[in-house]
Amino acid sequence: MIARIGHIELATIDLERAVAYAVDVMGLREVERVNGRSYLTCNERHHELIVAESTITGLGHIGLEVESEEQLELAYAALMREGVEIFSQQPEEAGIAHALRFLGPGGFVFELFTGMETNQAANYRTMGARPRKFGHVTLNIEDVQEMEHFLIRVLGFRVSDRVGTLATWLHCNHDHHGIALAKGPNRLHHYAWEVQDLAAIGRTADLLAAYAQTPAFVWGPGRHGPGNNLFSYFKDAVGAMVEYYADLAQIDNEGGYQARDWPEHALNLWGEGPPQAFLDQGLPPLPQISRHFSL
Are residues 113 and 42 in the same domain? Predict the structure, then answer.
């Protein structure tokens, strides 16, 4: 059902600072700003990140792209059968043709959409190591099983790998994971962007150091066992954790793929496991009263 991980919306009390950081450090480009919402991209798509001005900081919604309007209608029927609370059945943001927004487990808001505009310049000049695409999110959630079952049963995700009961990685296309889950207070742990290679991660570290962000990375560089990807984690100006990754495993043979249960030390095949500063990160979902921003 889900074709790709589409975009993410973050709310911040300092929109100008958040946008400047996304452009200058993260290598994104602002497409437009409408009614306190900045739409940013790193490729030809209208947006991969939305930063919304708000009186509080938090996670607005996670956008998941479906292939067609017919798929969106099927998704609506499945959500209705599950008794899911539907917030809207039309786009609440610029750049997309059709959308469906709803409340998922743990207070997380999801948007299914189709018809994203793809008329932006694929290449542009930037100080940062321009990402290729928005790749995945990792959510801390109190009831991991509830969210995992919801993603599989209702939205069609498949399990890629696990680390015991510590974490689960799920995919919706060839990428090893589009959503990962770990037990904890309900919050966005991090959002992730694919970059070209280890050199791009190195350029990001140099830029972070130049901006007096010490240490540059909260964790990394390293290589995860689950997903096999190179990783690096740092904080953005909103206060959310960002991952820049490369070399993510691809699941090209869905029928022949077997999910693996990895040992905890495989979270970093190159060295030390996650530091406490990494584990403590998180951006909570916005309260329902603050979730909707009119265009």
Answer: yes
Q: pLDDT-based confidence at 293, cuts 50/70/90?
A: very low
Average pLDDT, rounded, for the chain: 95
Three-state secondary-structure class, residue 224:
coil
**pLDDT, average across residues 259-267:** 97
Which residues, in sequence order, are CB contacts of 230 under 8 Å at separation 6+? 197, 198, 201, 221, 222, 223, 245, 246, 247
Tens digits of per-residue pLDDT, 88-99? 999 999 999 999
Number of domains in the chain: 2
Q: Is residue 158 part of a domain?
A: yes
pLDDT in tens, 173-187: 999 999 999 999 999
Residue at 272: amino acid letter: E
Cβ 172 vs Cβ 156: under 8 Å: yes
User: Rounded to whole angstroms, how far apart are CA atoms 160 and 180?
Assistant: 9
Residue 12 belongs to domain with CATH number: 3.10.180.10
> Is 132 exposed, middle or buried, given 0-12, 13-18 or 19+ CB atoms closer than 10 A?
middle
> Is this structure's pTM higher than 0.90?
yes
What does the alpha-carbon distance between residue 7 and residue 262 come to, in Å, rounded to a whole number?
A: 29
Q: Left if phi > 0, otherwise alpha if psi is -120 to 50, otherwise beta: which for 96?
A: beta
* Residue 233 lies inside a defined structural domain of this protein: yes
Q: Could you list the residue range(s) of the whole structural domain that residue 177 is in?
A: 133-279
Instruction: Give the whole-angstrom CA distance, residue 50 versus residue 27.
Output: 15
108 and 149 share one domain: no
What is d(CA 25, CA 128) in angstroms, rounded to the nearest whole number? 5
Asked if residue 288 has pLDDT above 80, the reply is no
Asked if residue 36 lies in contact with residue 15, where contact means CB atoms within 8 angstroms, the answer is yes
| Residue 40, helix vs strand vs coil | strand
